[in-house]
Amino acid sequence: MFEDLHLSSIVVSTIRNAPVLIFAAMAGLFAERSGVVDIALEGKILASAFVSAAVAFTTQNAWYGVAAGVAVSAALALLQGYVSITQKGNQLVGGIAINIAMSGLTFVLAQFFYQQGGRTPDLGQARLFDIVLPGTQALEGIPFIGWFYGHVIGGHSALVYLAFALIPLVHWVIYHSRFGLRLRACGENPHAADAAGVSVATTRYMAMLVAGILCSFSGAYLAIVQSGFFLRDMSAGAGYLALTALVFGNWRPMYTALGCMMFGFFSAVQIQIEGVDLPGIGRIPGSLIQMVPYVVTVIVLAGLMAKSVAPKAIGKPFVKSR
User: Do the strands 282-283 and 277-278 form a parallel or antiparallel pair, or are they unpaired?
Assistant: First the structure.
C-alpha cells in the first residue's frame, strides 16, 4: 500500500512542518518589505507559543490561546516598531534583545506558574485537532486517492489551511493592493514615498502590526497543534530559518513559501532517517541528523546571499527631509 511507504510520511510531515516557517516568513516579509529588519521573529514565536499554551490550558479553549498569542506577539511587534521607527534605534540590536528577553522570560514564567522544568502542562483537549474532510472514509480504500484526499488535502488543523491560504493572499496584498504599493515604496525609497504623500512611519507601523499577528500563528501552531505544550526554546531557530527562506525567496511570497517547504521537507527527512540503518552507511547518530536543516540553511545562504536583492532601505531608519 502507498500509505506504508516512507515517502508518504515525508510528504505529510512536510505539509505539517511548513506552517511554522510560512507564518514567520510571511510576517518577516511584511516587516522587511517596509524597511525594518525583523530579526525578532524568534522571540515573538516563543512569546506567542508560551502565552497560547498557558491561556489554552487555563481556559481549556484553544482559540482563546491563539487570540492571546496574537495579542502578545502584536504588542512585541509594536514595541520593536517603536524602537526601530520612532526612536530610530539599531534594528538588529533591538531584535536580538527581544529574542534574548523572550527566551529567558518564557522559561522563568513557565517555571514560576507550573513548576515543570520550564514547560507548561499537556493541553489535552485544549489542542487544535485535525479536520476530517467529508467523504474521507468513503475514499479511504482507494489506493493513492484515499491517502491523498485524507492525509494530504485533509487531516490537518485549521492553522495548516490558514498558512497555505496566506501565500496567495500575501502575494495579492504585496503586488496588487494600495497598501502593498506603499509598503514596497517605503522599503525601496522612503524619501520618494514621503514626497508622494505616504506616511513612512505609519506604513511601517502597520507592517509591523501585521507581522506580529502573522508571527503569533507560528508560535500558536508549535504549542497548540504540534506539541500540545510549551517547552523552553521550542522554536529551535524557526525564526532564523524563516529569515533564510526570505533570502531564498528574494523577498517574494511565492518563492519564500517554496523555501519554507524545502526546510519542512528536510525536517521531515531528518525525522524519517533518525534511528534507521541506511544501506552501506549504518545508523547515523541522532545529533548529526538534527543538524540537517541548519546545514541546509548555511548552504542556501552561501549560495544565494549574493544573488538575492533585499529592499534597498532595509535596516535604515527614515529621517524626514526638511
Answer: antiparallel
- What's the pLDDT tens digit per position in 141-197? 888 888 888 888 888 899 999 999 999 999 999 999 999 999 999 999 999 999 999
Distance of CA 190 to the CA centre of its chain: 27
Would you list the domain boundaries of the chain?
A: 2-304
Q: What is the pLDDT of residues 22-76, one digit of tens each?
A: 999 999 999 999 999 999 999 999 999 999 999 999 999 999 999 999 999 999 9
For domain 2-304, the question of CATH label 1.10.760 is answered with no
Phi, psi (degrees; rounded to nearest 5) at 134: -60, 140
Report which of 79, 71, 120 is spatially closest to residue 99, judged by C-alpha positions: 79
3-class DSSP assignment, residue 306: coil
274 grid coordinates: 533518525
E runs forming strands in the chain: 277-278, 282-283
- Residue 62 grid coordinates: 484553544
